[in-house]
Amino acid sequence: MGFNPCCCLTLRTGAIIIGILEIIVSSIGILTAIVGGLGWSSMSENDTRVMFEEMKKKDPELRDYSVDTIMSILAVALVILLVWSLIHLFMGSALIHGIKRQRPSFLKVWMIYEGCEIVAVTLLYIFMISTNLFPDLFTILLTCLLQIYFIYVVYRLHVEMREQSSHLPKPRYERT
């Protein structure tokens, strides 16, 4: 069998745990976006100005921006969080469904999406550095490494599922 990347667990169990974690994190993201959107929409103009003044004290670079610009950026960020979380909820569900129903193609779709997301995060990070916005490098690096590990675990399960299905007789379809 070779090296098992999931320590004491089977690949199947490890991949299911990855799917469950993805569903949990995406659910938290959906709740955060909804609560943030409700909070944002219920703020009065005075509350917005007070919050903006507090933000300026903590981050002097915000002095160049108006309240409307910051609130628009906040609204766009909440929408992006909601869409990202919904996609991850769907992908986590597809991963678990693919594992339970022995459908390697569902695992392949999940791996392709996660790979594209790693590329997108890397490009976003490069853009942020070029515009003098310095995000937490350690957190982004750790997240990308964890995603690569998750892809590796799911890939190993994908290969295992393909090998198991190749031993089964292929169904013969009658031509009508």
Automatic annotation (TrEMBL):
Highest rank taxon of the organism: Eukaryota
Keywords of this entry: Membrane, Transmembrane, Transmembrane helix
Transmembrane residue ranges: 15-40, 70-90, 111-131, 137-155
Name used for this protein in its record: Uncharacterized protein
Organism: Orchesella cincta
